[in-house]
Amino acid sequence: MSIHVSLDVVALIAAIVGLGVAAQVLAAKYRVPSVLFLILMGVAIGPEGLELIPPDAVGDSLSTIVGVSVAIIIFEGTFRLEYGAIWNASRAVSRMITIGAVIAFVGTALAVRLLLRASWDIAFLIGALLVATGPTVIAPILAVVPVREEVATTLEIEGIVNDVTAAVLAVVLFKAMTARHLAPGGYVWLFVQRLAMGVIVGFVVAGVVWYLLTQVEHPSETAPQTARLLALASAVIAFAAADSVFSEAGIVAAATAGFTLGSLELPYQEEILQFMRDVTLLVLSFVFITLAALLEFAELLALGVAGLAVVAVLMVVIRPLAVFVSTGRVGFTTNERLFMSFVGPRGIIPASVATLFAVRLQTEVPPTDPSGAHLLLGTVFLAILVTVVVEAGFARQIAGLLGATESEQ
């Protein structure tokens, strides 16, 4: 029996890796975000398709697997986010990651509350997660739409920064949601503990890795490999160390470690970045395809017209409002602002973190909020599916119609 189970697990992992690579190839060929193909493949082999992945395929370990995966994804994103890039960013970027993020957070939460009649806890959690646009879904669009450098930079930095801020904000809200035994005044201390622990652990791990890479001599033939492995280890170790002390602090630690190392002068930095990108692609494939074990069409259908209305409000009201408020009087044309309003697909971080939280809401004893977990997953995945298909699929056509491409100005 154990041999049979082992073979099943090996075959499952092989299938996921193979499909993940196929999704990346298709994404490169058709110039659309790979998340679209990953989700479709996951659904195809999940319980709603061929049933190759049963709902209990990974059992109780899913929460841990997704948690580590999110840590690697966030580490890679923040590693690319250099301090200098933020410091030198235009006023539009600064507004997009602050004012724009607040508008997206509050607006989405209100839409979910009013249209889906969700609890305030779930509404704000969904609002926090859907702040993130993300570089993994923005970059493929910018690769095929030649907009001005200022427009591309604004969208790219917004995606990277909001990936992290959305995850951290969601962590804080999730802890408030699940720690109801505390007095109201205890929430603030709880948040400070976890955020501080994540930052401290992240700095410490980054400092150790910096010392090992810059102050310790390595054989020239193995030095690049050592640098790559130390970077990957730092993401996992930072997450595990912080999370073992305070749950939910691991994501903050991974983000801090990635941002710190990315802002320092490291040997073999380009090799590290390329390696982390490759690892992230595999992790993304595993996470998205495996998430099909939790995603049921019934969850999406249960949202009904109200669910589609939430996504519509997110796309045609909240996103344009955030963009136009953030980019006023900073040198963008009206058509460029309209294009930026159209480009706001959701992707990796909302799906990964939503699944992590949904698993915990469902598996805690007693379960914290099983119905809320289904609403959380359904809304987030519906937003991802619609925004990726529409906004990524028609980005070139919209840019051409608006005359927002660089060649047409």
From TrEMBL:
<keyword id="KW-0406">Ion transport</keyword>
<keyword id="KW-1003">Cell membrane</keyword>
<feature type="transmembrane region" description="Helical">
    <location>
        <begin position="159"/>
        <end position="179"/>
    </location>
</feature>
<feature type="transmembrane region" description="Helical">
    <location>
        <begin position="96"/>
        <end position="116"/>
    </location>
</feature>
<keyword id="KW-0812">Transmembrane</keyword>
<dbReference type="Pfam" id="PF00999">
    <property type="entry name" value="Na_H_Exchanger"/>
</dbReference>
<feature type="transmembrane region" description="Helical">
    <location>
        <begin position="57"/>
        <end position="75"/>
    </location>
</feature>
<dbReference type="InterPro" id="IPR006153">
    <property type="entry name" value="Cation/H_exchanger_TM"/>
</dbReference>
<dbReference type="InterPro" id="IPR038770">
    <property type="entry name" value="Na+/solute_symporter_sf"/>
</dbReference>
<keyword id="KW-0813">Transport</keyword>
<feature type="transmembrane region" description="Helical">
    <location>
        <begin position="279"/>
        <end position="295"/>
    </location>
</feature>
<dbReference type="GO" id="GO:0015297">
    <property type="term" value="F:antiporter activity"/>
</dbReference>
<dbReference type="GO" id="GO:1902600">
    <property type="term" value="P:proton transmembrane transport"/>
</dbReference>
<feature type="transmembrane region" description="Helical">
    <location>
        <begin position="338"/>
        <end position="359"/>
    </location>
</feature>
<feature type="transmembrane region" description="Helical">
    <location>
        <begin position="122"/>
        <end position="147"/>
    </location>
</feature>
<feature type="transmembrane region" description="Helical">
    <location>
        <begin position="191"/>
        <end position="213"/>
    </location>
</feature>
<feature type="transmembrane region" description="Helical">
    <location>
        <begin position="301"/>
        <end position="326"/>
    </location>
</feature>
<dbReference type="GO" id="GO:0005886">
    <property type="term" value="C:plasma membrane"/>
</dbReference>
<feature type="transmembrane region" description="Helical">
    <location>
        <begin position="371"/>
        <end position="390"/>
    </location>
</feature>
<keyword id="KW-1133">Transmembrane helix</keyword>
<protein>
    <submittedName>
        <fullName>Sodium/hydrogen exchanger family protein</fullName>
    </submittedName>
</protein>
<keyword id="KW-0050">Antiport</keyword>
<keyword id="KW-0472">Membrane</keyword>
<feature type="domain" description="Cation/H+ exchanger transmembrane">
    <location>
        <begin position="14"/>
        <end position="390"/>
    </location>
</feature>
